[in-house]
């Protein structure tokens, strides 16, 4: 009886230690394989963030992690993102990947998560200040804007420019970086008289159309339109077409979603700077996995790449055609 009891206790002890488990590892390995990583996006519906979630799921599976996801109800919904951070910290995540909707207002919640030992990585959009997170995995948004600015300048071939900028919204770093990059690429400073109209669109197609209509009322001779993203660009195209101006106005944009690349292919947009949300999320999850398994912390900025996409290449600006863009697009 005693022998049977001792054997039973030994078996129980071995089971508690994790010996003979399906993963073949000890308790430390099992904890690593079940580590949690959180992904918080601005919205659930934007194809950019849908692709980002796909990349996170793929990378979490490859790295043996459990993925938790959350999103704002709309772009700019800071309250939902704060709640998501708090819920994920309470659930014991090792790291959180976030595309902040309000780059300043999210900072206190990010600080609390980091103080609790959670690795926080911004994807796509840096916080303000950028070092409020441990790391940033993102497109170089300034470079993205600069590329389309350089393209637009070359495409105008010395013709005097009347520029409309259809921007994002005040205080959002990604919008400001793209705007500033475009101006640098085009070779003009903020306030230059060639910039005849600037309107915010929040990256929305209908707001882009309204903004373009307002700009055309203010300055009917606009011949260059910079847009924060392709939905805004397509809205602008609708307004231009209604005025019979779609053929003689150069429209450039940023994002590289499949709909946007097709709009470049059809001539609605002259060129766009393509970014890669799937890679941002894949690399971000891998960084959290490295932290969970060995304590290695990602730090600083990692450029996830940007490519100018156009079927009307210009001298001096490196670009790929829409065949490449469609092979690497999202949405």
Write the layout of secondary structure elements.
Blueprint: H1 2-16, H2 27-33, E1 36-41, H3 47-62, E2 66-71, H4 78-90, E3 95-98, H5 107-115, E4 119-123, E5 135-138, H6 141-156, E6 163-167, H7 173-186, E7 195-200, H8 205-218, E8 224-227, H9 230-242, E9 250-255, H10 258-266, E10 271-274, H11 277-294, E11 300-303, E12 307-309, H12 322-327
Parallel strand pairs: 1-2, 1-3, 3-4, 4-5, 5-11, 6-7, 6-8, 8-9, 9-10
Antiparallel strand pairs: 10-12
Describe it for me?
The protein has two domains: 30-139 and 277-298, 3-Layer(aba) Sandwich (Rossmann fold); 141-274 and 308-327, 3-Layer(aba) Sandwich (Rossmann fold), CATH 3.40.50.2300. It is 45% helix and 17% strand. It has twelve helices and twelve strands. The protein has helices spanning 2-16, 27-33, 47-62, 78-90, 107-115, 141-156, 173-186, 205-218, 230-242, 258-266, 277-294, 322-327, and strands spanning 36-41, 66-71, 95-98, 119-123, 135-138, 163-167, 195-200, 224-227, 250-255, 271-274, 300-303, 307-309. The strands form two sheets. Strands 2-1-3-4-5-11 form a six-stranded parallel sheet, sandwiched between helices. Strands 7-6-8-9-10-12 form a six-stranded mixed sheet, sandwiched between helices. Helix 9 links the parallel strand 8 and strand 9 (250-255). The longest helix is centred in the C-terminal third of the chain and has 18 residues, at 277-294. It starts with a helix and ends with a helix.
């Amino acid at each position: 009886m005693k022998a049977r009891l001792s054997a039973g206790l030994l078996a129980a002890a071995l089971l508690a230690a994790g010996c003979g488990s399906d993963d073949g590892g000890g308790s430390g390995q099992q904890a690593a394989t079940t580590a949690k990583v959180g992904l918080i996006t601005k919205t659930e519906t934007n194809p950019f963030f849908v692709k980002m979630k796909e990349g996170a799921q793929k990378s979490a599976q490859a790295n043996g992690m459990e993925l938790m996801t959350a999103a704002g109800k709309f772009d700019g919904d800071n309250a939902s993102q704060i709640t998501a951070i708090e819920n994920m910290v309470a659930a014991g995540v090792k790291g959180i990947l976030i595309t902040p909707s309000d780059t300043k207002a999210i900072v206190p919640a990010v600080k609390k998560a980091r103080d609790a030992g959670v690795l926080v990585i911004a994807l796509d959009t840096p916080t303000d200040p950028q070092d409020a997170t441990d790391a940033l995995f993102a497109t170089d948004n300034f470079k993205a804007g600069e590329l389309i600015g350089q393209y637009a300048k070359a495409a105008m071939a010395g013709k005097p420019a009347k520029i409309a900028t259809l921007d994002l919204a005040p205080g959002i770093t990604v919008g400001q970086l793209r705007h500033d990059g475009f101006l640098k690429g085009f070779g003009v400073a903020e306030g230059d008289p060639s910039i005849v109209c600037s309107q915010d669109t929040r990256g929305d197609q209908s707001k882009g159309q309204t903004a373009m209509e307002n700009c055309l009322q203010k300055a009917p001779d606009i011949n260059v339109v910079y847009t924060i993203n392709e939905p805004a660009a397509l809205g602008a195209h609708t307004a231009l077409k209604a005025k019979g101006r779609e053929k003689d106005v150069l429209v450039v944009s940023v994002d590289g979603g499949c709909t946007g690349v097709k709009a470049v292919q059809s001539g609605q947009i002259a060129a766009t700077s393509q970014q890669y949300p799937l890679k941002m999320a894949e690399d971000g999850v891998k960084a959290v996995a490295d932290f969970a398994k060995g304590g290695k912390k990602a730090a600083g900025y990692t450029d996830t790449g940007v490519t100018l996409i156009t079927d009307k290449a210009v001298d001096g600006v490196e670009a790929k055609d829409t065949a490449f863009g469609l092979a690497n697009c999202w949405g």
